[in-house]
Amino acid sequence: MPIASSELACPNQLKKIAANPGRYFRLLRKALLQGLSPLLVNSAFRLQGQMDIHANSRWYDRSFVEQFGGFQLPDDSPRMIGNLDAWDSVRRDMMVLLMRDLLDRQVAGDIAELGVYKGYTARLIHHYMPEKILHLYDTFQGFDVRDVKEEIKVKGRKPRKNHFSDTSVEGVLRLINSKNGRVRVHQGFFPESALKSQEKNRYCLVHLDADLYAPIMAGLHYFYPRVVSGGFILVHDFNAWPGARTAVSEFFQDKPENPIPMPDKNGSALVQKM
Ligand SMILES: C[S@@+](CC[C@H](N)C(=O)[O-])C[C@H]1O[C@@H](n2cnc3c(N)ncnc32)[C@H](O)[C@@H]1O
């Protein structure tokens, strides 16, 4: 549906505007943003419209949302959707839609995240799916020197020293602010932290966001057999960090699933377990 610019410009609409200035302000703002967006196409940041099912979307589709629920499950109590980076709404929306799908299909199992840092994606996951136990794996001290050495060996790339070390378990738990105690922290070097715990969990969703070849490969080896059929493995940085892409490509070479590239800011790879 094109923007009703005539509604904004026509002088005999002034009375209507005065009667409902909020509506016209919103229209003007949308028109401006939509007009600006082509100017930003070749810049570092471009404007991406909200999905049609987002209430702020220029193309918000009420009838679709009423029937199917949009970001929320139909007839369910509202689930909280926390923002990630403002300039990467694709990532947030993708994660929400994956979680919504798991809930819709009632896929059993816990959730795991390897690579938590300050807890932004963990907070999004926990508050959208608070009924699931969320296992968080991280050193909470940044990259481990063993992984960095491996990255240099495999990819010839040296990650920054102390990358992601400015965090803490307390800070992450404070940010997540869980009301139900279903967030479990496993601090330490992965995979040692997981192997040590001898847990026997099954997972419906595994989010691997550890950037480097070694932890991502270890995460795939550890979690893949533990993900239930129909569950998802989402690997971030598939189109950003060379080690992440190599690990995914090598691991799935002899598996029945094909990782599907997803266009968030860093590019993710999505796998649905058979
Ligand atoms: C990109 S950050 C995670 C960002 C987070 N998922 C978000 O989007 O909010 C990567 C994290 O992976 C962690 N990490 C990398 N290798 C690890 C390993 N072998 N064991 C545990 N944590 C690791 C780092 O400590 C860092 O906090």
Structural description of this entry:
- The chain is an alpha/beta fold.
- The chain has 3 domains: 1-40; 43-70, no CATH class; 80-272, Rossmann fold, CATH 3.40.50.
- The protein has helices at 5-9, 14-19, 21-36, 62-68, 89-104, 120-128, 145-155, 169-176, 192-197, 213-223, 242-251, and strands at 110-114, 134-138, 183-187, 203-208, 227-235, 260-262, 268-272.
- A 7-stranded mixed beta sheet has the order 3-2-1-4-5-7-6, with helices on both faces.
- A hairpin with a 5-residue loop joins strand 6 and strand 7 (268-272).
- Helix 5 (89-104) packs parallel to helix 6 and helix 10 (213-223) packs parallel to helix 11.
- Mean pLDDT is 93; it is low at 1-6.
Estimate percent helicity: 25-40%
Approximately how much beta-strand content do the residues carry? 5-15%
Could you say how many structural domains there are in total? 3
Helix run count: 11
Q: Identify the overall geometry.
A: globular
Low-confidence stretches: 1-6
In total, the number of strands is: 7
What's the SSE pattern?
HHHHHEHEHHEHEHEHEE
Please describe the structure with a list of short key phrases separated by commas or semicolons:
globular; binds S-adenosylmethionine; alpha/beta; single chain; 3 domains; disordered N terminus; Rossmann fold
Layout of strands and helices, then pairs:
Blueprint (H helix, E strand, L loop, with lengths): L4 H5 L4 H6 L1 H16 L25 H7 L20 H16 L5 E5 L5 H9 L5 E5 L6 H11 L13 H8 L6 E5 L4 H6 L5 E6 L4 H11 L3 E9 L6 H10 L8 E3 L5 E5 L2
This protein binds S-adenosylmethionine.
S-adenosylmethionine binds next to α6 and β2.
